[in-house]
């Protein structure tokens, strides 16, 4: 590798901030500002700035590990790969292909996610593959698909935000989860626009809002319906737009009219005057946006909730028009691309449906297999993890740490332990990798090339900047070697560009069409937005990509967006006398996800050393807990203990815990795996708990 500056992108969240990497002679890597990338214009959060710390051999896996007499010991690559091939083929022979499970991640590059989906279906022949994106944006994806016929997180670039008139940010704490993006909202306000934040907590993001609504967790559906009710009652519906560009208004309107503002106030705790003010702010300007994130989506009714917010946009003519629209703020580095190329239980590359015969034929043709040999749709992430040790006997896991991040985690940890065989590819010894029979150490972002697709639908090239340490291989090499050992010698290239070339063909003609995108283009341009079909061969023209969707028509058969008639329903586990308090969960700025990577960075640990329970002084007083005192939070699934963090910035009926840690402060010991019927998203954002003082 040349010892020069490489422009590339951050390994963590969906902004995929641009950064320059320069290797130093002592083996470390320096991160410097890269001002040319429009998403962050040089700005980085602490995680991005410190990301090279995880490249250090001090914290990462340096050799394959195999379990021997109960403990993990170093082994050669051949021994480790042989063991995995043996484990998987024994399961397949004894229990059939569907007894082999595969679990992926939205942090994997497009090339890896694509290859993992192909590996499951072609090499293992299993339907049992899903990934952690199911825990992330699946409700928004399902809602967007129903209404618009297509799911792309944001249908416009972030740079459109300052040009709209009002943004409603529903359950996003982007000041902590995507700090450089705050700039767009500040610019919106400088331009005279307004920001409404909806969050049960007065977050760092809410502090920037012109209006902060703090509903009871799990009631966003009612809130959106109450706003739609007021839109209709106050004659603010855009009748011309509704009749020209939508279908299904009458039913959605009738459902909203049943949600009187006073009824909504009782459900949500948001007062009628606040609701009216929100409607006024949203409807007054010519253009407006609604952006949702995990707050309203990680609910057992997340899909309907997203539908209700989309209905509000459609009724007011605020979708598919310049500087207006509904968008979802996708979370993981490749949360968008990771869901498009086939690691999801029901999908094939190009965002094709696995149960669509034409899609099966197209992809089978690219893969050189019989379409009938492709398995059908499998289980969703939680259901897959829940079936470990019963229907599913062996698991190959790449890019997730479910022991920390899955709901009802103690149960999932037991399920993982009951497997006949577990193989994990990771860069560090995560809590899940520590339970494996074989662990493979793999290369990461700066050490390999690959593409990701950020929250705007912008496909980006993450370039290799340094040489990986000896003894480490890439996920693509692992899949190549395993395919070979399992009898499939061809079709699993180790060169990412070769994989991308195949992905282009596999996605061609699909909803997420990447066929007009090449590595060369990505190296020259600041990303290309999908859909980007191949160049028109007659004209020799290059397709420019599609930064803005739906301006002429929606992606449905008749080009109209669909209203979805939805009604309020309670959360799956309402508080009662035994469990009187609501728990919600989320993130802090200095830790990322299960913490597998960021808990290994000193600077980040100093900023966020451990879990905590955020609670209102009224609850703390009733409990007799002072700031920093250990508090036990108990749900029907278990008990977690963490220090109290007392703040007026949270509803008195709600406590909040971040989910980045393992051990006694693990938030997911408590969470409820109640699933959304459509998206199969678990209800991470609301369950019933009681608090107990802990005697120290
Ligand atoms: N620092 C950091 N940044 C990250 C990540 C990380 O782990 N750490 N992860 C990345 C990923 S994968 C994702 S998905 C994104 C997530 O990004 P966000 O969605 O911004 O993150 P969360 O903290 O999960 O949830 C956002 C807010 O929802 C609120 N909330 C809780 N319950 C409800 C509710 O019922 N209704 C409403 N309206 N709000 C509610 C919480 O109080 C919280 O402030 O962040 C990405 N960026
Ligand atoms: N209570 C609660 N739980 C939640 C959430 C919540 O809000 N509340 N949010 C949910 C959401 S939105 C998400 S996205 C999930 C995320 O939770 P996880 O799926 O656990 O995500 P990570 O911690 O990012 O795990 C990624 C793992 O892959 C490894 N890794 C990184 N890069 C690579 C690579 O290139 N190859 C391989 N093989 N491994 C790699 C990392 O070291 C890490 O161990 O958590 C969910 N869980
Ligand atoms: S905001 Fe996200 S992409 Fe940007 S530096 Fe931070 S973690 Fe990386
Ligand atoms: Mo996520």
Question: Could you characterize what this model shows?
Answer:
By secondary structure, the protein is of the alpha/beta class. It has four domains: 6-55, Single Sheet (N-terminal domain of TfIIb); 65-135 and 333-529, Rossmann fold; 138-328, Dimethylsulfoxide Reductase, domain 2 (3-Layer(aba) Sandwich); 581-693, Barwin-like endoglucanases (Beta Barrel). Helices cover 29% and strands 18% of the residues. Strands 5-4-18-17-16-6-7 form a seven-stranded mixed sheet, with helices on one face. Helix 7 packs across helix 11. It is globular. The termini are far apart. The protein binds ligand MGD (2 copies), iron/sulfur cluster and molybdenum atom. Iron/sulfur cluster binds next to helix 1.
Task: Give the tags.
binds ligand MGD, globular, binds molybdenum atom, six-stranded mixed β-sheet, binds iron/sulfur cluster, seven-stranded mixed β-sheet, alpha/beta, Rossmann fold, 30 strands, 696 residues, 22 helices, Dimethylsulfoxide Reductase, domain 2, N-terminal domain of TfIIb
Question: Would you spell out the secondary-structure blueprint of this structure?
Answer:
Blueprint: E1 6-9, E2 18-23, E3 29-32, H1 46-50, E4 65-68, E5 71-74, H2 77-95, E6 100-104, H3 110-124, E7 129-131, H4 138-148, E8 166-170, H5 174-177, H6 182-190, E9 194-198, E10 211-213, H7 220-233, H8 239-245, E11 246-247, H9 249-257, H10 261-268, H11 272-283, E12 289-292, H12 294-297, H13 302-315, E13 325-328, E14 347-348, E15 352-353, H14 357-367, H15 381-386, E16 394-398, H16 402-405, H17 409-417, E17 421-426, E18 438-441, E19 450-453, E20 458-462, H18 475-485, H19 496-507, H20 519-524, E21 528-529, E22 561-562, E23 581-586, H21 602-607, E24 613-615, H22 617-623, E25 630-635, E26 638-646, E27 654-658, E28 672-675, E29 682-683, E30 687-693
Parallel strand pairs: 6-7, 6-16, 8-9, 8-12, 9-10, 11-22, 12-13, 16-17, 17-18, 23-27, 24-26
Antiparallel strand pairs: 1-2, 2-3, 4-5, 4-18, 14-15, 19-20, 20-21, 23-30, 25-26, 25-30, 28-29
Helix pairs in contact: 2-18, 3-18, 3-19, 4-13, 7-9, 7-10, 7-11, 7-13, 14-19
Bound molecules: ligand MGD (2 copies), iron/sulfur cluster and molybdenum atom (MO).
One ligand MGD binds at residues 13, 136, 170-174, 176-178, 198-201, 203, 217-218, 220, 293-296, 331-332, 584, 586-587, 589, 591-593, 656, 685-686.
């Amino acid at each position: 590798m040349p010892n020069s500056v490489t422009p590339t992108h951050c390994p963590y969240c969906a902004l995929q901030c641009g950064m320059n990497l320069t290797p130093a002679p002592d083996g470390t890597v320096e991160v410097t500002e890269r001002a040319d990338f429009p998403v962050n214009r040089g700005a980085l959060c602490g995680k991005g700035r410190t990301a090279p710390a995880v490249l250090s051999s001090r914290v990462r896996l340096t050799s394959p590990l195999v379990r021997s007499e109960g403990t993990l010991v170093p082994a050669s690559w051949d021994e480790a790969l042989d063991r995995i091939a043996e484990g998987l083929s024994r399961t397949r022979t004894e229990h059939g292909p569907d007894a082999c499970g595969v679990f992926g991640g939205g942090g994997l590059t497009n090339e890896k996610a694509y290859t993992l989906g192909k590996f499951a279906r072609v090499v293992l022949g299993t339907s049992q593959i899903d990934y952690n994106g199911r825990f992330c944006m699946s409700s928004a994806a399902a809602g967007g698909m129903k209404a618009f016929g297509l799911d792309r997180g944001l249908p416009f670039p972030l740079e459109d935000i300052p040009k709209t008139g009002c943004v409603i940010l529903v359950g996003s704490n982007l000041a902590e989860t995507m700090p450089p993006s705050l700039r767009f909202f500040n610019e919106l306000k400088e331009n005279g626009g307004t920001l409404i934040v909806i969050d049960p907590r007065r977050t760092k993001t809410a502090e920037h809002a012109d209006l902060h609504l703090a509903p009871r967790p799990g009631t966003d559906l009612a809130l959106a319906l109450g706003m739609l009710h007021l839109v209709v009652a106050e004659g603010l519906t855009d009748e011309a737009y509704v009749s020209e560009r939508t279908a299904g208004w009458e039913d959605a309107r009738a459902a909203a009219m049943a949600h009187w503002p006073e009824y909504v106030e009782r459900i949500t705790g948001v007062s009628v005057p606040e609701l009216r003010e929100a409607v006024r702010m949203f409807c007054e300007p010519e253009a407006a946006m609604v952006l949702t994130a995990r707050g309203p989506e990680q609910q057992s009714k997340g899909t309907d909730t997203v539908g209700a917010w989309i209905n509000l946009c459609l009724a007011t003519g605020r979708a598919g028009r310049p500087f207006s629209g509904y968008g979802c703020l996708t979370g993981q580095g490749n949360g968008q691309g990771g869901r498009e190329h086939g690691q999801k239980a029901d999908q094939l590359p190009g965002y094709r449906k696995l149960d669509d015969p034409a899609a099966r034929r197209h992809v089978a043709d690219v893969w050189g297999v019989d379409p009938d040999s492709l398995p059908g749709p499998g289980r969703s992430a939680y259901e897959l993890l829940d079936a470990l040790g019963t229907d599913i006997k062996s698991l190959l896991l790449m890019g997730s740490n479910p022991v920390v991040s899955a709901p009802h985690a103690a149960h999932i940890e037991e399920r993982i332990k009951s497997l006949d065989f577990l193989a994990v590819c990771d860069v560090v010894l995560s809590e899940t990798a520590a339970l494996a029979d074989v662990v493979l150490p793999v290369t990461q972002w700066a050490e390999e090339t690959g593409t990701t697709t950020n929250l705007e639908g912008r496909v980006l090239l993450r370039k290799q900047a340094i040489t990986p340490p000896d003894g480490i291989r890439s996920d693509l090499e692992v899949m190549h070697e395993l395919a070979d050992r399992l009898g499939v010698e061809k079709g699993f290239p180790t060169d990412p560009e070769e994989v991308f070339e195949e992905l282009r063909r596999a996605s061609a003609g699909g909803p997420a069409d990447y066929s007009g995108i090449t590595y060369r283009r990505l190296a020259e341009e600041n990303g290309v937005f999908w859909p980007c079909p191949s160049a028109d061969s007659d004209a020799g023209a290059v397709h420019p990509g599609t930064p803005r969707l739906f301006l002429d028509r929606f992606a449905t058969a008749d080009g109209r967006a669909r209203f979805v008639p939805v009604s309020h329903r309670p959360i799956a586990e309402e508080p009662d006398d035994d469990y009187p308090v609501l728990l919600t969960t989320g993130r802090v700025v200095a830790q990322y996800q299960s913490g597998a990577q960021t808990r290994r960075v000193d600077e980040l640990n100093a900023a966020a050393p451990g879990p905590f329970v955020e609670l209102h002084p009224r609850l703390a007083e009733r409990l007799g807990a002072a700031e920093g005192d250990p508090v036990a939070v108990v749900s029907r699934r278990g008990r977690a203990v963490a220090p109290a963090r007392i703040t007026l910035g949270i509803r008195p009926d709600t406590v909040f815990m971040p989910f980045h840690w393992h051990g006694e402060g693990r938030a997911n010991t408590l969470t409820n795996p109640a699933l959304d019927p459509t998206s199969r998203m678990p209800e991470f954002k609301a369950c019933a708990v009681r608090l107990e003082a802990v005697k120290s």
